[in-house]
Amino acid sequence: MNLTNLNIISFNVPYPANYGGVIDVFYKIKHLHKNGIKVHLHCFNYGRGQQTELEKYCETVHYYKRQTGIFSFLSLTPYIVKSRVAAELKSNLLKNDFPILFEGLHTSFLLNDKAFKKRFTILRATNIEHDYYSYLAKAEQHFFKKIYFSIEAWKAKKYEPIVQQANLILVVSKTDENYFNTQYPTTKTVFIPCFHAEEKIEIQQGKGDYVLYHGNLGVPENEAAALVICNEIFNSLDIPLIVAGLNPTKKLSSTINKYKNIQLVGNPTESNMQELISNAQINLLYTHQPTGLKLKLLHSLFKGRFCLANPTMLSGTTLTNLCEIADDNGTFKSKIKSLFQQEIDVETVKTQRKESLAEYSNQENCLKLIDAITNQLV
After folding, report:
1. Nearest C-alpha neighbor of 8 from the set 367, 156, 31
2. What angle do CA 165, 168, 172 make, to 5 degrees?
3. Under DSSP, is residue 4 helix (H, G, I), strand (E, B) or coil?
4. How far is CA 327 from the centre of its chain?
5. 0.85 cut: is pTM over it?
6. pLDDT tens by residue, 46-63
C-alpha cells in the first residue's frame, strides 16, 4: 500500500523554524509535501500563534490549546505529555484512517487509546527523554526548576514503554537507535536524522574575524555551555567571540558584559543567524549533553568554515572526521588560536563534507521515511 496521506501531531507550532525540534518538524513537512504526501498537521499552540506559512505545505492544519498549569504537573504522566491531552485531537484523528506520526514522546498520549489499536502509528523520538531531563536537571541552577526537571526525568522513564504501542520508531542518532533496539526489540526502529534548512554545502572563501557559539540560549544546557565558553575558554583569549541565539538569560547577558572581546546577539532572525554561521572563522560546538542530534552541528557543517567540537557534541553521529576536536579547555584555547590564523581550503573541505553529509540529505531521508512507513503498511 502506498503512502498518500499522513497525520502529523506536532508538540508545538512548527513555524517559524527557529529552534531544534520545530526545525525537524517543519522541514520534514516541507519535503513530504515536495514528494507528493498530503500532510494533515495537528499542533499545540501555546504562544507561537496560527501560521499561514504552514498552509503552503499541509492539506489541513489544526491547532489545539496546551493544558499548562498545576493540574497537568500533578499527574504521574510526564508534564510534557499530560499538558498535550486534547479531546478534539482524538476526534479529528478519528475522522480519517491515515497513518499517524507522533512528533516526540510529548504527543504520544493516544498510543494507548483503544480507538487507535488498528491505526498505523509512528513515534519520532528526538531524544531519550529521561536522559535529556536528567541532563537539564544537572545543568539547572535554579532549585525549583532543578526539582521539576528531576521529577520529569523520573516520570519520562516510567512512561517511556508506551513507545512499544507504535508500529515504528524513528530516531535521530545512532546512539538512540542502539538504545531503542535494545530496550524495545519487538518494535522496528529506523535511524532518520533530523530534517534541516540546508540543501547544499556553501563555505565562504577567506577568513572570518570572530568565533561563533550559537543555540537556544534559554535552554539550561546551552546556557551552561555558553558560560563555560565565556568564563573558562575566552576569559584569557583576545579573540572576538559572538554568542547568538534565542532568549538569552540575564545571567548570561551580565556575564558577557564583563568581557570586551565577547558580544551577545539575542534573538537573531533566521537570515541573520545564517550570516553569523557563514561569516565566522570558527563555529564552536560545545555541549555537556550527549542526547539527540544537535542541529547546530549540521548547520555549521553545511555553511561554516572551521568547526571545533567537543566529543559529546559528536556523540551518535557519523561526522567526527569533519570537525576539529577538543576535549578540555586547554585544547580548545590552543586550537582556537591555531585555527583563527588559518585560511580554510574550501574545495577540499567541501568535497570531504559532501561525502559524509550525504546521510543527512533531506530528500534522501524523506524517501527513507516514506519507504519505512510504506513497507509496513498492510
Report:
1. 31
2. 120
3. coil
4. 23
5. yes
6. 999 999 999 999 999 999
Q: Which of 345, 358, 273 is nearest to 306 (CA)?
A: 345
Parallel/antiparallel/unpaired status of strands 121-125 and 5-10: unpaired
CA 22 from chain centre, in angstroms, equals 7
151 grid coordinates: 521529577
Q: According to DSSP H, which parts of the chain are helical?
A: 20-34, 70-73, 79-82, 87-93, 129-139, 143-159, 174-183, 220-228, 250-256, 270-279, 295-303, 329-341, 346-356, 362-374
Q: For strand 262-266 and strand 241-245, is the pairing parallel, antiparallel, or unpaired?
A: parallel
Residue 13, CA atoms < 13 Å, CB-side half-sphere:
19
What are the pLDDT digits (tens) for 178-208?
Answer: 999 999 999 999 999 999 999 899 999 999 9
Enter the C-alpha cell of residue 59: 492539506
> Scanning the structure block, which residue is given the C-alpha cell 536537571?
137
Residues 229/15/322/303 CA torsion (nearest 10 deg): -90
**Domains of the chain from N-terminus onward:** 5-197+360-374 (3.40.50.2000), 211-343 (3.40.50.2000)
- 63-75 pLDDT, tens digit each: 999 998 888 888 9
Residue (of 217, 283, 285) closest to 245 by Cα position: 217
- Taking the chain, what is the end-to-end CA distance rounded to the nearest angstrom? 6
**What angle (nearest 5°) sits at the alpha carbon of residue 102, between those of residues 186 and 297?**
95
| Bridge partners, residue 190, by sequence | 170
From the CB of residue 301, how many other CB atoms can be counted at a distance below 10 Å? Answer: 25
Contacts 24+ apart (CB under 8 A), 135-143: 135/221, 135/288, 135/289, 135/291, 136/219, 136/220, 136/221, 136/289, 138/288, 139/220, 139/221, 139/223, 139/224, 139/288, 139/289, 140/220, 141/220, 141/251
**Which has the closest alpha carbon to 275: 210, 342, 344, 335?**
210
> How far, in Å, CA of 159 to CA of 105, rounded?
9
What is the C-alpha separation between 183 and 181, in angstroms, rounded?
6
